[in-house]
Amino acid sequence: MGRLAGAVGHADRQQPLRAYLTGLLLSGERKSVEPMAAKIDPLHVRARHQSMHHFVANAPWEEQEVMRVSRDYALSQLERHGPVGAWVVDDTGIPKKGTHSVGVARQYCAPLGKQDNCQVAVTLSLVNATMSVPSAYCLYLPEIWARDRKRRKAAGIPPEVRFRTKWEIALEQIDALLKEELPRAPVVADAGYGVVTEFREAITARQLSYAVGISSEITVWPPGVEPLPAKRWHGIGRPPRRLRRSRNHRPLAVEVLARKLAPTAWRTVSWREGTRGMMKSRFALLRVRVAHRDEQRSAPRDPEWLLIEWPVGEAKPTKYWLSTVPHTVTLEELVRLVKIRWRIERDFEELKDELGLDHYEGRSWQGFHHHGALSIAAYCFLAAERARLSPPQPLAFLRPARLPKGFRPRGAAPASGATQSGFHHHHAHPPGSLPSRRPSLLSLVRHSKPTIFMTQ
């Protein structure tokens, strides 16, 4: 508590900090300010509500400092069970019905698997085989909000906050981690980020490797094939420098390339124990050169890995990744790396279901980020306690996401046929079918005094 109290500044903020975190840790259907105040102090609900609301919506403390303190606390437990294996970039959607909450717009909402009215926060987490630690949480501000002075004023959006794409926000979060000199690891992201050439090149420029999803339309040069060299110079004008293509010498879309691979190129790989047995699928791995606008370049891009997943029973490949991890990586290692994103999805589900990350009912920029930072602080404490008090469990014991009918992850190909059971970890499972060995977050405090966190 002492370190978190220092992160929020003035001593008069310690009591509402303690109350807010206690409210998040207590059981309850809603973790917005009013129901938490009623549960914490039923005899003085109005006064408690005013104090907590002012603390989260108006008090001038830095949410980044709260998240840093929380992250460092949890990271000490994470690293007891192995080094950080990936920096995972993701975004999480918060469905909304109104139009006044800061940043709300019709956009892709991951929990719903479709376009809908929601807020979206870009996140960066440190991950290994046993747990994840959120390190950054920033609202994506759609362009219609960024340019609307009236809306900006009503939501208290700081003047320096401009429109930034999600991948630009992610790069800022990565830069912040680099400044803190935390252990480096490959950057992992889905196709919403991986299809952006500028994002991949920016990661490489920061001397980080990546393993990112891409779409089936991305074009590459197959193994052993490069763009044509510049035209021969005949001594007149400037010497030609740009690479060339021709009608008979062009790059291939990754889906086309996948279909051309020999049957021997495909191998079945298992990557973790799931709730219905071992998770496995068919993969191919090959070295390619990305072809994006290389006719404007003077030298071919460096080769990198193309990983393709084509489950048995599907009419075409379902997922593709590009990766710049070392050439010594094995197929099994790379599959485990790209599949580590599922942990973030499960952990953010816990953040929402048990710690109210998506329950904030205020409309301001500051309130959104303050509430998010406090939810993540509570999560970091409980996740660290779970890692400390019980031996690390296999990844299978995380509860699968409850997904709506017809859900399709961003960048995934539409299902074209029957998929063999166990091939896709994002399928929902019937109630009662899950192992119970991994304790839920709040089970750590429901049978003890939740104020244990407040006195650390």
Strand proportion: 15-25%
Structural class: alpha+beta
The oligomerization state is: single chain
Number of domains: 3
Largest sheet: 12 strands, mixed
For the record, give the distance between the C-alpha atoms at the N and C termini, rounded to a whole number.
5 Å
- Helix percent reads 25-40%
In DSSP terms (H or I, runs of 4 or more residues), the helix count works out at 14
Number of strands: 12
Instruction: Identify low-pLDDT runs.
Output: 393-403, 415-437, 446-456
- Name the shape in a single word: globular
Encode the helix/strand succession as letters: HHHHHEEEEHHHEHHEEEHEEEEHHH
Mean pLDDT: 85
Radius of gyration of CA atoms, rounded to a whole number: 24 Å
Question: Can you describe this structure?
Answer:
Strands 1, 2, 3, 4, 5, 6, 7, 8, 9, 10, 11 and 12 form a 12-stranded mixed beta sheet that branches. Helix content is 33%, strand content 18%. By secondary structure, the chain is of the alpha+beta class. It has helices at 2-8, 14-25, 33-40, 45-57, 63-78, 143-146, 149-155, 166-179, 191-194, 197-205, 254-260, 331-338, 341-355, 365-389, and strands at 86-95, 105-109, 114-127, 132-139, 187-189, 210-214, 219-221, 252-253, 267-274, 277-290, 304-309, 319-323. 40% of the residues are buried. It starts with a helix and ends in a 67-residue tail after the last helix. α2 (14-25) packs across α14. The protein folds into 3 domains: 1-61; 67-203 and 342-455, no CATH class; 205-229 and 242-338, no CATH class. A hairpin with a 2-residue loop joins β9 and β10 (277-290).
